[in-house]
Amino acid sequence: MSADFTLLTTMMFRTCITILAVLVSFVTCSVNAEIIEEQSPVARQSLHNNPTWLHLGQYKTDLFQKSFQSNISNPDFFITSMGRTDPEAEFTETVRLLIAQAATSPKSDASILCRFPARALWLARELGRDFGNPYQECEGFKTWVGDSPIEEVSAIYASGYLSNPGSVYGHLMLRFHGSNPTDPQDLLETAINYGAQSSEEDPALLYVVRGLFGGYQSTYSSLEFFHHNNRFRDDQLRDIWEYRLNLSDWEVSFLQAHIWELMNAHNTYYFLRQNCAYYVADLLNLVLEPDLIDDMKPWVVPVDIFQRLASGQENQDPLVKSFVRLSSREARFREGYARLSPLEKSIADEVLKSRDGLALLNDASLSDGQRINILNVSLDYAAYALDDTEPDSKAHKNSMLLARISLPASGETKTENPPAPHEGQPATTLQLRAFDNTKLGAGVELRIRPAYYDFLSNTAATPPFSELSMVDTKVVITDDDVFLRQMEVLKISALNVSATTLPEDKKHAWQIRLGAEQRDLSCSNCLVAYAEGGIGKAAMMGDQTAIYGFATGRVTTLDTNGSSFKAGLSGGIITAGDNWAASLSGKSLQQIDGPQHLENSFTAELRLGQGTDWDVRLKSEYNKAHENSVALSYYW
Predict the structure, then answer these.
(1) Do 260 and 286 form a contact (C-beta atoms < 8 A)?
(2) How far apart are the C-alpha atoms of 136 and 106, rounded to whole Å?
(3) How far, in Å, CA of 563 to CA of 570, rounded?
(4) Which domain holds residue 107?
(5) What span, in angstroms and rounded, lies between the C-alpha atoms of 211 and 153?
(6) Is 551 in the same domain as 457?
(7) Mean pLDDT over residues 247-265, rounded?
(8) Coil, strand or helix: which one is 479?
(9) What integer best gives the mean pLDDT of the chain?
């Protein structure tokens, strides 16, 4: 019996051990399965290949869609040493550390939750697990967010600034709105900017060269909106357009958390594509489903992004709920001056030319309303044109302020806004032109202009009477020849027309052109590289017509005439109606070296149609041959 009892006891003990081992193994496997499921959801959900995860790391695939590399260049942005090229390894380590640190309290700013709050928020949502609340547990993030919750986000467009190569196409940034999201004048709100670092002091040509070939690093920055407002509207006299985005509370919080992650991330800046428009649009695509970047174009300009925003929808709701214009100091003055009656304009001119002119406000038979109109416009002019550091200017401005304060308050004048950026023609042009040339015969010209507009374009939110183009390329096909007629790398014209005769409202008109083109219209094998520039004056003739003239110089590679330096005069007239626009221009250049004779040319062009997608152009030009043509242009 003793032996049987011993045997029975041994068997029961072994059975208990086996059951306990199975239970331990089951529990361990269950825990490990839970962690594995959360750490490596590749087998079940492939979260490391999810577009949102790839967006959080700015991962892009190569041309063959086989390997990844992040646009973020600094290694310390990533958790693992392979993080820049391996989104799966970065994903797995992120989840592991979030799980390991979930119970830690309080959390340091070096924790994964506080370094990557957007990753944590998204993974918690996808995996159904609580990794903590960065808005409550992360001191650095809480300080940056501030006390006021963000309720709305706007995309901001600052119109083009032709005096700075980095801003000629406009600028794109974001603005956070707090508890009073309907007030566009709340300048203490946060703005998120993106730009090339250490580029402000570089000369224009150096900036373009470095920008084209990736010579700058760039990153996001966070400042109160008034810094950008002062720079764009007051200093550079650029209009700002604000597009309120239709985002949910989750999308606003998620976007804000991701921007915090990117504050120390660096990218290589490329002027044509990976610029402010590209990276801010890429940021928005974290929460907006329609792709804001056209992958078919090797360039990105801000107006393309706003046209996609304004036309886009998500869940049948528009991406943009409203938009508003914040006009520059110059625009406020010019628009206010245009609304004055002839009598009010004449008195405003005298008021602005000297302090003695203020006496006319009392001597003239004016109503309080007329006096208010004159002084409001005069103060806008003083803010736009007068230098407050000069004692006479400051005293004159103070006299106008005292005169205005003595009059009753008045409601804000309602003005009709010009077309918004998304309402004009898209930036890229494809044009097919049929022509008849007195030397070359009949043929067709195929033209592509990646960006942006000319004097006759139906654009919006661009400087009036200006033109801006880059890599404007024309190829000609005749019965017996195919040749490159022109590749204009850059062309900028700014007429800076003055609508008044006021002393400080007088800017120079100017133009620059760089590229390669046939020497004239008579030949197909006389390609020369050139640089051309002009400076002069322009003036308004009525409301829709401008006339201009330049003193012009031109340098080329040595052409068949043995000349490379020319100088002379050029000028023209531009006018427009409701459904058309026209221009007439001419140029007369004297050869400085080589044969001493004049080279004369002229061009007359008419644009028909007011659509944004297409127009028809009629053109007649002369330059050693006469050419008439008709063209159909398509814009996208």
Answers:
(1) no
(2) 10
(3) 19
(4) 40-144
(5) 29
(6) yes
(7) 94
(8) coil
(9) 86
